[in-house]
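2024-03-11 09:14:02 DEBUG pipeline.ingest accepted 1 chain
2024-03-11 09:14:02 DEBUG pipeline.ingest length=150
2024-03-11 09:14:03 DEBUG pipeline.predict start
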Amino acid sequence: MTLNKGKLNKFLMLKLPSAWLCGVRVGEIEENTCKVTVKHKWINQNPFKSMYFAVQAMAAELSTGALVMGKVQKSNTKISMLVAQNRAQFTKKATGKISFYCYDGHLIDEAIEKTLTTGEGQTFWMKSTGINDTGQQVAIFEFEWTIKAK
């Protein structure tokens, strides 16, 4: 079973309802890239009339995590996955529709191969960039993922 945006959005609704209610949605997913969108609305705003940072973090994490989930699923082995660290940089107020893009899917393949070969946990950093509907960068998130063969 291959992950697609429909399956991932259903997963959000059932397993991550806070992200779903805040409007986080997978827009596109391919082998090594993922786009997740979220629109600034009343339910996800902060007191400064922009999107709350945690909502941005949910969307950004999903853009990286969906790629990890897909590659783990494709490996047909039991592999645990977890975010160990994250860092964020906010460059502009997040208003309107924000799209988070991750292009780092290629990093996952080597980590999966190593954990399956050695049995040891592997870590790798993935980046997600938030772009508003006028093409301006609003945030950069980086997530350190850990994976380990079970």
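2024-03-11 09:14:41 DEBUG pipeline.report The beta strands are 25-29, 34-39, 79-90, 97-102, 122-131, 137-149.
2024-03-11 09:14:41 DEBUG pipeline.predict end
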